[in-house]
Amino acid sequence: MAARSAAHRACVVCHDATAAEHFCTFGNLAYVRCRGCALVYVDRLAADAEMRSAYTGRWVRKLRRRLTARFRKLHNHRHYQESIERARKIFDFAMSHVTGDRTAIRFLDIGCNKGFLLSAGIARGADVHGIELVPEIMIPFGNTYPQLRAHVYSEKLSQVAPRLGADCFDLITAIDVVEHFEDPIADMAHIHRMLRIGGVAVIQTPDAGCAQAQQERCAWGALKPLEHLHLFNCENFTAFAKARGFQVVEIGEPFEHADGNFVAVLRK
User: 0.90 cut: is pTM over it?
Assistant: First the structure.
């Protein structure tokens, strides 16, 4: 039994591989749970191409999205009003935690999806930047704000962060993103490095400690082993963030519950 446990990936919170126990299996991929801190995580990461396909879909879907997106602007999205209202709510919440001069905020949204949160930031006068792995879904944003196309990066955080430099953002958001990080230790270190002293990161991520997760176990909707690689709860995420150098300002209610989320406000 000890030899089998030692073969698991180490927990990114406890740094212990021997404390991992089997949690759930999905095809040829399995989740384990750390007996020390209760982090739920994928034991063996799939190949990069396989994980990327979970986001981008087959080439036919990608081509269709790219062709139709060429003629669209942000307001043409089907649920534009609902999406922009959600984005304004999130941005205003995040801004309420920013200290100092709020008139010249430099803002980065990681996993910016269609760009609604960036649009909310623009409306509030922020200098916005975004990271989104699937470039075609950001085409309408680029059509709406052509002057900002160069501010959106279609690469992984680990590839973009070194070019953006240190101490350069007042505010960073990662909404439903941390669970996707292949290397949360390195990626959270990038976020910490990019924030200015006193800067704020606002993060929403599924809560592996919520009642829904406990009741549904392997049927819990947040278990997607090609996408959701590390599933935290409020306690182990707090410990994890502090170990990366953040002050944890607030752990609270999510922007939407979905499969069970929490929001963390972190300050450098």
Answer: yes
Of 199, 121, 111, nearest to 160 by C-alpha is: 111
Residue 109 CB neighbours (<10 A): 30
Over residues 138-171, the pLDDT tens digits come to 999 999 999 999 999 999 999 999 999 999 999 9
> What's the farthest any 2 CA atoms get from each other in the chain?
58
Is the dihedral angle over the CA atoms 213, 214, 220, 222 positive or is it negative?
A: positive
Beta-carbon contacts of 133 under 8 Å, excluding residues fewer than 6 positions away, are: 52, 55, 56, 111, 154, 155, 156
Which one, of 207, 112, 197, lies nearest residue 157 by Cα? 112
**What is the spatial distance between Cα 246 and Cα 196, in angstroms, rounded to a whole number?**
12
- Distance of alpha carbon 68 from alpha carbon 62, whole angstroms: 10
Tokens of 214: 């406990």
Domains of the chain are 2-267 (3.40.50.150)
Both tokens of 185, joined, read 């230790």
